Amino acid sequence: IKGPEGPPPPEVDEDFEDQQNMVARLIHTSLKGSTLEAHFKVLHVVRKQFGAGGAARLRITLPPVVFSALKLTRDVVAQGAEAEVSIKKVFQFLHQTVQALAEQGSPDTALRLYLECALASDAAANEPITYEFFTQAFLIYEEEVSDSRAQVSSLQLFIGALTRITCLGQENRDSLVHKCAGYSSRLLKKPDQCRAAYLCSHLFWTEAVKDSENVLLCLKRALKIANKAQEVASATSTGESVSLGLFVEVHNKYLYFFNAGNEAVTPSILQGLMELIRNEMQNSDNSNQTVEAFYSSTLSHIQHQKAQGGEIGERFAALAM
């Protein structure tokens, strides 16, 4: 099929891409002012100028403007009460800029930038704005992200960002955590659901939060989904190695929290998982070298921990190899 005559449209023109990337690099390296106020004024001028460029340019040129504004937030926070720029106005600028990017057809980039903004507002200890940035990222996820791989990637970003947040009160944090848990249960594929479930366990084990019981609930849910995936694989004779690998992944996550001192994860739970994995491997018709090597490395890690002595060695001593 012969394409249309004439030059390709800007969004697929390599020369156009190179030109816009050069502009973006210039923003990254040179956009600043002699004072914080001057820097903020320059940001407004640049955004206004770029706004006339259209969606094809904005998806490349607006992100560096956002990162320059994020740097400004750090400088404003560092100066505290002496700063000549209101931190609230900088966050308003960021919100408007990322929203414009989302409206111009770059929702995936906007989602990531909203989370970067949430981390910046958390550093400024501004709970309402932090919650608002997360809310906007969740809205983009619900309205724009339909591809299963993109959903998994986005969920990983949500969890990673939330584990670093410290300024949220209990009610707001619980609301966002429950959102993530809900998203994980609605993923299309069972392996993705399983991995998302055990990743959610990290939301309950951070520097500020140590919720042993909810960690265990997430891990149990992941194991239950892995069991369902194994049942489907056995019934259809497809994906058996993938589902077996899920058991090893969940076991490794249990080991992580056991090593971290989570009292809800007991040696008996780990022992039961090890026996389950051994039985599944023995009963499997199709051996998988990758899964076997993965589990062998896990056992080697346990043996290494047992040999360390001290508190760690004592904790792992209860595990029979």
Task: Tell me how many strands there are.
Answer: 0
Helix share, percent: over 70%
Extract low-pLDDT stretches.
1-10
Separation, N- and C-terminal Cα atoms: 62 Å
In oligomeric terms, what are we looking at? single chain
Largest sheet: none
Structural class by secondary-structure content: mainly alpha
> Helices and strands, in N-to-C order?
HHHHHHHHHHHHHH
The residue-averaged pLDDT reads: 90
Report the principal-axis shape: elongated
What would you report as the Rg, rounded to the nearest angstrom? 24 Å
Number of DSSP helices? 14
Provide structural commentary.
The chain has 14 helices and no strands. The chain has 321 residues and is mainly α. Helix 8 runs antiparallel to helix 9 and helix 10 (212-236) packs antiparallel against helix 11 (240-259).
A few lines on this structure:
This protein has 321 residues and is mostly helical.
Helices and strands, with pairings:
Elements: H1 14-30, H2 36-51, H3 55-79, H4 87-103, H5 107-123, H6 127-144, H7 148-162, H8 170-185, H9 190-200, H10 212-236, H11 240-259, H12 267-283, H13 289-307, H14 310-316
Helix pairs in contact: 1-3, 2-3, 3-4, 3-5, 4-5, 5-6, 5-7, 6-8, 7-8, 7-9, 8-9, 9-10, 9-11, 10-11, 11-12, 11-13, 13-14
Features:
about 325 residues; mainly alpha; 14 helices; disordered N terminus
